[in-house]
Fold:
Amino acid sequence: MTAVARSRRGCHFRAHRQACDTVVPSAVRTPLRTVPHEKCALSLPLPLALTTRLAPVAVLATAGWALSSGPLAPAPAADHHDSATKSTSASPTAPSTSAATKTFTAAPAPCTAVTANTVKSLVPGAKTVGKEIPSTDTAARRTCSWNALKGYDYRWLDVSFELSDTDAAAEKTYQDRLTEKNGGGVVPGLGDAAYSVVNLSTEDKQQTREGVVLVRASNALVVITYNGSDFESKKAPSTDVINKGAIKAAKDAVAALEGGR
Structure:
């Protein structure tokens, strides 16, 4: 190739490169490859190219949102499980069994549960107002005591109220107490159930006869303890005296319990 030809060829490529350089501004121009006899290709920046290609996709996505979630979208079908749950919760439930109510919720004042006349006849010489025994739970158990020595004749009387949560619990306690007693008998017409027993004990040749009456009235137990001794004769009062005295006090105590409902 002659020098003139080479010069003309170099001018051709320089002119060709300058023509390409004027198509796209330098700020967005990508590197240009100068291939012989190849036409110049217009290259767009990558962000603009992606925007151009993704524009139709964005339009379709917008249209899809309008159809599925927009104002023209059909109302969603009710979920079968949720409907069943709502209908189940809305349906009335079966009536529950209410807790058993207590007939007696508090023990009466034990020191006024026995009449003054009863105290005078059973415990001669004692004050009609007895002494209440301290209790850790006065709502469940209260006890009052009277005792006196008149001459050589000694008497002691206890009246106790014990409350359970239910009638069944009181009945169980009542039956358990009966297993501790021997030789007694049923007392008719007193509470829901009543039992009386009298026992004789001797210590240092001194006799003491004690009677116990146990009464169940609903969820309450009434326990009467009555005993006596004669320190002159060393003998004890008769079984009949002690038994009748204990039952008399028990009737007063049950009347006080039922009257305080």
